[in-house]
């Protein structure tokens, strides 16, 4: 199996990569059964390459009863037949690597499906070696300090299983029993599973829900030292199999706690910056950079070799767990005025509807995503500004079929409409008849073509990936300006968070010997002293500050 190697070993590939989250089921259906699949994704790799994607993150691809869209795995070392076969997966790796792209998939460590043979054996027989793979109790009173995550559906983290005659522990749906990481055999089973996929040539994993692996009385059962110890062991094991493999972790926690998931550079390579994400929306709503400033001030430096993953949206609700209850209320009222738009502690809407389909607002949000900090992750469909369907249950409203063209089923599938795993979006604004890849490819200034251009510019400047971040002070609160700097480049980014034109003055005295060259369409000039200018509503500019005299 061909593996990608980094030309310059000191540059770590994920530090300036563009990530793209693929919902395989929603992407492209090659065999007209109404579900997207691996051969379908392979046909669309050139599309992703052209967008500038370096690494795909695939939502779970394993056999599953799909009570939680595949995050309830019943066989970790196989492909759900609806998606194809292991050979199809190997083809995907080959075809992706041939195009210079990498592939990571979700790995759910914390829990299995209740249909997994381990759980079936465990519940059926107290003496089964699998009984101790899960967390059992005669009462539902243990670990009462652990919060409930799926607040809309679950009343307790314990469910009584009449077959087992005991309660079992679960942090998510009751159909997802938590594994017992105090059992060394569970730990070994997960290492074996990781090895299986690494041997096939996979480039790493998105580590699902890592904070919850262990339980201890009197704690929140999150971020425990035992959890970090296991994750370090997992990292060392993965690295021994493939030194370039990536662990991208989903620790939805405050920055100080997330910092622990990087260890001393010996735990997770990357973590999503969950607290930053809602603050980008909050700052846009308030036309005030303060929320972003505050969370960045709380964001610790990372050990060498580590990186943040930033995102605007993903397959889950826009989580408001990492904000205060007042801010949550504000965000709900502003971005989710209808009750149906809310789910658990979040908002089940896609990016374009959240931002009122406002072209300039969508673009400035992407300017921030691509330049502020870390490696950006795009969510499938957001590159064309897809809409959502809040009438669908759970988070399914943001997981509808990709809109490729205006042919039946949005060009996603040749199945009969009623066979599709979910209906395509048909409303006036976001319906596939108007909004699709093919029509945006024909329109030079569409969101898709604009994103392709701006991602390609972003890719030319490594400081956007691994540069330090220095926020610039500015009297105008609607202006979010910063410097990204590494040994190759010094970059200046200025974003207007308000719908109205805003004037600003930035003190660039530190860079007085530099010239300011616009990377987009703005004006270049010397950078001595103050830089004074005006940006249109939601306007932004990117510059390189350099001492090269041409
Ligand atoms: C993660 C996933 C989410 C899933 C949950 C339980 O948070 O992003 O979709 O429901 O884990 O596995």
Summarize it.
The protein is built from 16 helices and 22 strands.
Structural write-up:
This protein has helices spanning 24-27, 38-43, 45-51, 86-98, 117-124, 184-200, 225-241, 255-260, 276-286, 290-297, 325-335, 351-354, 359-371, 437-442, 447-459, 463-466; strands at 19-22, 55-58, 102-108, 136-137, 158-161, 166-169, 204-208, 246-249, 270-272, 307-311, 318-319, 342-343, 346-347, 375-379, 468-471, 479-485, 490-496, 502-507, 515-518, 525-526, 530-535, 540-546. It starts with 18 loop residues before the first strand and ends with a strand. It is built from 16 helices and 22 strands. The chain is 27% helix and 17% strand. It is an alpha/beta fold and 550 residues long. The relative contact order is 0.10. The strands form five sheets. The chain has an eight-stranded parallel beta barrel. The protein has a six-stranded antiparallel beta sheet with strand order 15-16-17-22-19-20. It has a three-stranded antiparallel beta sheet with strand order 4-6-5, with no helix packed on it. Mean pLDDT is 96; it is low at 1-9. Helix 6 (184-200) packs parallel to helix 7 (225-241), helix 9 (276-286) packs antiparallel against helix 10 and helix 13 packs parallel to helix 15 (447-459). The structure holds alpha-D-glucopyranose. Alpha-D-glucopyranose binds at residues 68, 71, 108, 172, 208-209, 250, 315-316.
